[in-house]
Write a structure and sequence with these properties.
Blueprint: H1 7-16, H2 23-45, E1 54-58, E2 64-66, H3 67-80, E3 86-91, E4 98-99, E5 109-117, E6 128-136, E7 158-164, E8 168-173, E9 178-184, E10 189-194, E11 205-207, H4 218-228, E12 240-241, H5 247-257, E13 260-263, E14 276-277, H6 278-291, E15 295-297, E16 314-315, E17 317-320, H7 322-332
Parallel strand pairs: 3-5, 11-12, 11-13
Antiparallel strand pairs: 1-2, 3-4, 5-6, 6-7, 7-8, 8-9, 9-10, 13-17, 14-16, 15-17
Helix pairs in contact: 1-2, 2-3, 4-7
The structure holds 2,5-anhydro-1,6-di-O-phosphono-D-mannitol and magnesium ion.
């Protein structure tokens, strides 16, 4: 049997190779992975763990919180607040930023997360996941403020997601490609199962919530309409469609076999730029996809170049196989 590489060893080697990651970032990523293991256990227990159902509360976006949303948020905070690697955290489930309490040492990094993405799938036993993004705290001695988080995605120093499905898989980038780790449940360790993940540039598979079709803008309608025409249409090939309604699961499929994911702006809430959140959904996913050779735009510009204005800002998202993303983007930006 070939030798197994555990997450710890992978990260230590990343640290050794030209100091690709500093020791504090290595520690941070190990702690996030440990928190994901705990969330995975809670998710796996399901109804036996009394973790199902709603929590009778709403988050800052006015969405009903599930018990597991809150548990996952607490697990991530408790795991990360004391280690000395972080200065502050931000989450989909918290209105403001969470400063590391004064009793603990302050670190150089900022952590953002969607603790449990795809909450509508919790109760129906369909894959859900955790998404995270790591930024460096801007230089200076003053305390951290919300504005310190408002950095474009191209300044991320690490990003990843953990999908809780038939397997628990952690997918990670520190800016040197994408690696996947599968949780060995008996040992409780993440094992490296794929390095240098590459997304095919072309695809025959798209992911979009078709029930919103009547609300879409013209370029998105045109793209999907051309896909639906199949062999007989301008694309000259048949397309397949998938929509899990957990971004983590849809992105993981694209990481594994290619495809294009769209959650575009639509007319249901015309003043909002989209449904998904820029800072802790689109940015980390966009960077992971780019690191695997794909592309990510909001239809008009690269996601990672968007200068955020607020912590919970929303954005239109088109990501996945490069040639498809470029095609949809060109339909939004005609020459
Ligand atoms: P959440 O963070 O509240 O779970 O919402 C985000 C999720 C994504 O995972 C998914 O792509 C999308 O919402 C599905 O939305 P819809 O139910 O409109 O298809
Ligand atoms: Mg989410």
């Amino acid at each position: 049997m070939s030798k197994r590489v555990f997450l710890t060893r992978y990260l230590v080697e990343q640290q050794r190779h030209d100091g690709r990651i500093p020791p504090e970032l290595r520690l941070l990523l190990e702690v996030v992975a440990r928190a994901c293991k705990r969330i995975s256990l809670a998710v796996n227990k399901g109804a036996l763990g009394e973790v199902m159902g709603s929590a009778d509360s709403e988050n800052v976006q006015g969405e009903v919180q599930k018990k597991l949303d809150i548990i996952a948020n607490e697990v991530l905070i408790e795991a990360n607040e004391w280690g000395g690697h972080l200065a502050a955290m931000a989450s989909e489930e918290m209105e403001g930023i969470y400063l590391v309490p004064n009793r603990y040492p302050q670190g150089e990094y900022l952590l953002l997360f969607d603790p449990l993405d795809g909450s509508s799938n919790i109760d129906v036993n369909v894959s859900i996941g955790t998404i995270f993004s790591v930024l460096r705290k801007p230089e200076g001695d003053r305390g951290v403020e919300e504005s310190d988080f408002l950095q474009p995605g191209c300044q991320q120093v690490a990003a990843g997601y953990c999908v809780y499905g038939p397997q628990t898989t952690l997918v990670l980038t520190v800016g040197d490609g994408v690696a996947m780790f599968t949780l060995d449940r008996e040992q409780g360790s993440f094992v490296l199962t794929e390095e240098n993940v590459r997304i095919p540039e072309d695809t025959k598979e798209f992911a979009i919530n078709m029930s919103n079709m009547r609300h879409w803008d013209e370029p998105v309608r045109r793209y999907i309409d051309e896909c639906l025409q199949g062999k007989e249409g301008p694309r000259g090939k048949d397309f397949n469609m998938r929509w899990v309604a957990s971004m983590v699961a849809d992105v993981h499929r694209i990481m594994t076999r290619g495809g294009v994911f769209l959650y575009p702006w639509d007319r249901r809430e015309p003043t909002k730029p989209g449904k998904l959140r820029l800072m802790y959904e689109a940015n980390p996913m966009g960077w992971l996809i780019e690191q695997a050779g794909g592309a990510a735009t909001n239809g008009r510009q690269r996601i990672l170049d968007i200068a955020p204005r607020t912590l919970h800002e929303r954005v239109s998202v088109i990501l996945g196989s490069k040639n498809e993303v470029e095609r949809v983007t060109s339909y939004h930006n005609p020459l």
